[in-house]
Amino acid sequence: MAFFESEIVQEEAKRLFTDYQQLMQLGSEYGKFDREGKKKFIDTMEELMQRYRVFMKRFELSEDFQAKMTVEQLRTQLGQFGITPEQMFEQMNQTLTRMKTELEQDSR
């Protein structure tokens, strides 16, 4: 079975996409959240990034041609911005860490 024909892969891709869209829509109101709301948003974003990282690792480890091409396309697209997928994840983690630090400072 081809990588993209897997029901598990299709379901997780759909869940990741839907969850990400909902979180980004919710995030547009981040400044209006109370402390607990901000904490929950950050935690949910961290969880989503971890799920995405695992999902991408499946692509990287797959022997499927389409999966390998998808990884290469991502690398090419990010390369146009001068970053690698690893750097993208690191930047996301730095942003979430900064958000946590700001939240801790605001609570003092």
Detailed description of the structure:
This is DUF1825 domain-containing protein. The structure is a single chain. With 108 residues, the chain is mostly helical. It has one domain (3-106). 2% of the residues are buried. Helix 1 runs antiparallel to helix 2 (35-61) and helix 2 (35-61) packs across helix 3. The protein has helices at residues 7-27, 35-61, 65-79, 85-106. The longest helix has 27 residues, at 35-61.
Question: How do the helices and strands line up, and which of them pair or pack?
Answer:
Elements: H1 7-27, H2 35-61, H3 65-79, H4 85-106
Helix pairs in contact: 1-2, 2-3, 2-4
List its traits.
108 residues, 4 helices, 0% strand
Helix content: over 70%
Distance between the termini: 55 Å
Averaged pLDDT: 92
Low-confidence stretches: none
* Tally of helical runs: 4
* Main sheet makeup: none
Number of strands: 0
Shape: elongated
Radius of gyration: 16 Å
What order do the SSEs take from the amino end to the carboxyl end, as H and E?
Answer: HHHH
What count of domains describes the coordinates? 1
Please state roughly what percent of the residues sit in beta strands, choosing from under 5%, 5-15%, 15-25%, 25-35%, 35-45% or over 45%.
under 5%
